[in-house]
């Protein structure tokens, strides 16, 4: 007598029907973070003319956003694991919008540096949260790979589009408008 043992089938979670729409929302968040990293470059002469920063302050205005994001990505990802990825995404998106307004209406170089640093904190919450939520939404490895590829391509496109959008806004509006697209 022979018996064959059937391997137990692993239960796969059913795909969420709105996962592709959710991906659109998630990549929009990472698009804004990426655009904001490069949109400032063309506005620098206008900011200099209006706020009269020193050379050092101008460097901080340009660089503090990226420094803060890079320094906090891992910490914010860990925080998202602890308090909830959706919660940190919503808090980060709200903060990103509010601090963008503060950037747009900054009246001193010091306020601009502070606002850019706070924008970096908010941006650091968005990037790991969006990527972690993609992992939660897409269980099929092929779909997940595609979703992460779309996420990465959107981030890359954002850095490329930032100067174009910034140039258009600066041609038609004042320098603060480059922050209000967020």
Summarize the structure.
This protein has 182 residues and is an all-alpha fold.
Secondary structure elements and pairings:
Blueprint: H1 19-38, H2 44-51, H3 55-83, H4 85-104, H5 109-137, H6 141-172, H7 177-180
Describe the structure.
- The protein has 182 residues and is mainly α.
- It has one domain.
- The protein is built from seven helices and no strands.
- Helix 1 (19-38) crosses helix 6 and helix 5 (109-137) packs antiparallel against helix 6 (141-172).
- The termini are far apart.
Shape: elongated
Overall mean pLDDT: 90
What is the H/E order? Answer: HHHHHHH
How many strand segments? 0
Percent in helix: over 70%
Taking the alpha carbons of the first and last residues, their distance comes to 70 Å
SS summary, helix count: 7
Enumerate the spans where pLDDT stays under 50 for 5 or more consecutive residues. none
- Radius of gyration over alpha carbons? 20 Å
In terms of DSSP E residues, the strand content is under 5%
Q: What is the count of distinct domains?
A: 1
* Protein structure class: mainly alpha
Largest sheet: none
